[in-house]
Amino acid sequence: MIGATSLTLKPSLLPMIALRLSVPLLRLAPKRWVRRRAAGHSTCSEGARGHLDRTARRVSDGTLVHARGSFVDAIRHIDPRRRLRVPTLVCHGEHDLSGIIASAAPEWARRHPLVRHHVVPGAGHLAHRDNPGATARVVLDFLRDFR
Questions:
Q1: What is the DSSP letter of 45?
Q2: pLDDT average per 10 residues of sequence, the chain (147 residues)
């Protein structure tokens, strides 16, 4: 999983409050600002930033808010008793500023023996866009280990 949130590790109170507040705030914020802010927080490279901005323009405002709301709802229903039963790669960019992924990933790997955590250098939340070569190497190495 690249830039994913743990399904077994609940965020602490402050990040959870911020996540819940993000949905109504998204409804109020100017959409151009939301797209630029998302691109700035999700990517490190100009190419990836431009791609994200162009892609976000094709998605309706309602869809963006609905997707965020669904994500927040899923986070609210995390069950810490769940355990991953398959080898899982959790990787994120070194400069990932999106939510709690960078801070939660090491704990996720510590709690689950089948989870391998890797930080992609020179990348943000969209590690596969910012540093596709390094991301591909991490994924291929992981797959080779679990043939």
A1: S
A2: 67 83 86 76 84 83 83 80 84 85 85 91 91 95 87
Query: How many Å apart are CA 118 and CA 146, to the nearest integer?
Result: 16
What pLDDT score does 101 carry? Answer: 81
Q: Where are the domains of the chain?
A: 13-76, 88-145
Enter the pTM of the model. 0.77
Q: Which CB contacts under 8 angstroms, 24+ apart, belong to 44-51?
A: 44/93, 44/95, 44/122, 44/123, 44/124, 44/130, 45/129, 45/130, 47/129, 48/124, 48/126, 48/129, 48/130, 51/129
Give the torsion through C-alpha atoms of 92, 15, 34, 64, to 10 deg.
80
Q: Which amino acid is residue 102, in one-letter code?
A: A
